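The instructor's notes for this session suggest beginning with a concrete chain rather than abstract definitions. Hand out the sequence below and ask the class to guess, before any prediction is shown, which regions might be ordered.
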Amino acid sequence: MPPLFSFSKVSTKKCNIYKTIGILGGMGPEATAATYLEIIRIFQQRYGAKYDADFPEIIIVSKPIPDVVERVENEEQTMILLNEGIAQLATAGADFVIIACNTVQRFLPELRKFAAIPILGIAEEVAKSLPFKSVGLLATEATMNARIFDIEFEQKNVAIIKPTQKQQTMITEIIMNILNGKKTEGDKTTLLLIIDSLKLDGAEAVILGCTDLPLLISQDDVSVPLIDTIKINAEAAVNYCLNAPEEKP
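After discussion, reveal the predicted structure:
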């Protein structure tokens, strides 16, 4: 009996004019899913997407990289897996890539050297239109140490207010809990207290600089403006897939 479906017969012609979005995820997996869903919501709410053909083509590659939350365990292996994932997305037809993780943005300059397609950067996107002069930052220890946001914000003269080392240890534990599927009221309360502390230290807004943190808290929980990097990343993807410059012949 012949197979009911043959990959060799699949048409690669797009049914809409959008650029194909590539999402490099798995860091963590739930945040990757939330990024995908946020892109879908933007198309529904802003552009009235209703039928399947109203949405862009989205390709997701989820890579099980070594731990980057508590520390970067194996930079060489991490780079290999990230480059592999970007190559998979390009081969599958993605026109560009967003990475659903803040911490691995530290590898962005090197990743761009080898990538066949553009890669958008979260910190770059946050910095583009930041209307504040002083912001608090909640992120992994590795993101803090790599100064991923500092590098972008220094060019914009935006000051970053960071948690104390004790608070940072608590944030790391909370992120690990979220990755483990444990979203507790106790952890939420701890984050809210840290946000209050950053606000007292002069933060006009607070960046959720880890894509797992928006899975636990949202703007509804606080009075200070929150900059959700899942939303920023999804917005950048939508804008690029709609407005990407035409490739040169």
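Then share the key points. Residues 1-13 have pLDDT under 50 and may be disordered. The chain has two domains: 9-121+232-243, 124-228.
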